[in-house]
């Protein structure tokens, strides 16, 4: 039964269409957290909405209302707690597990198809550098679905680093190294050792593109994330690549998902000859 149908008779008819038709659920049968956006018109009904979300999704133990956009260096949302419960959960994706508390560190379940796509491109024996790794979901996907030789993941948020280490253990990954630090400091220490670099910071990764190129072997690939407007999703990102690395080739373009109204999160795959 849809959330709107559950709430008919609770939320007045004229406001029912404002009840969100989608929400993000992070977690699994062992417990999940639901994240929902509720418009101001539904302020008086927010707790009823949270109750309906929990009733409709039996594994949900906490319901959080997203307030504003992602902010700060750690790219976190502010949340209003509508249904109090544990927010540390184990999210199950494609046969692997991601332990995360979305109130403490970035995580988006909506990036899972992109994780599959990136993992499918990793060749046997590759050395992968994963910058801005958060709880390291791309590293886990690559380690479990491909056959890399080594993955090095770098994250600044101490909670991200903690969950990254937990996730390598949880998924029995032995060939990944977690580094707690600032990419600006760590990347220059890792020069020319990698076949593939992931730059997963759509708002600002371009500033680190020169450092990422330095980390890459010849014939290596960078997965470069950026934001693009609906009318020309890749234009700005491609302009940046041409400016910073004129001899590089863009060999892949992908709209990862919606980011904001009229704005997409995009990925360019950049080949360094
Ligand atoms: C958009 S999130 C992506 C996280 C992760 N790759 C994922 O897909 O779930 C970017 C991450 O970069 C981290 N970050 C931001 N600035 C950083 C820096 N200078 N050095 C290392 N990590 C940084 C943030 O804390 C955040 O976890």
Automatic annotation (TrEMBL):
The keyword Disulfide bond appears for this protein: no
Family annotation (Pfam families): TRM5-TYW2_MTfase (PF02475), TYW2_N_2 (PF25133)
Annotated ranges, domain SAM-dependent methyltransferase TRM5/TYW2-type: 23-273
Classification via InterPro entries: MeTrfase_TRM5/TYW2, SAM-dependent_MTases_sf, TRM5-TYW2-like_MTfase, TRM5/TYW2-like_N
Gene3D superfamilies associated with the record: Met-10+ protein-like domains (3.30.300.110), Vaccinia Virus protein VP39 (3.40.50.150)
Domain of life assignment: Archaea
GO biological process, one term: tRNA N1-guanine methylation
Keyword Metal-binding belongs to the record: no
Coiled coil, from the record: none
UniProtKB keywords: Cytoplasm, Methyltransferase, S-adenosyl-L-methionine, Transferase, tRNA processing
GO molecular function: tRNA methyltransferase activity
Entry GO CC: cytoplasm
Protein name, per record: SAM-dependent methyltransferase TRM5/TYW2-type domain-containing protein
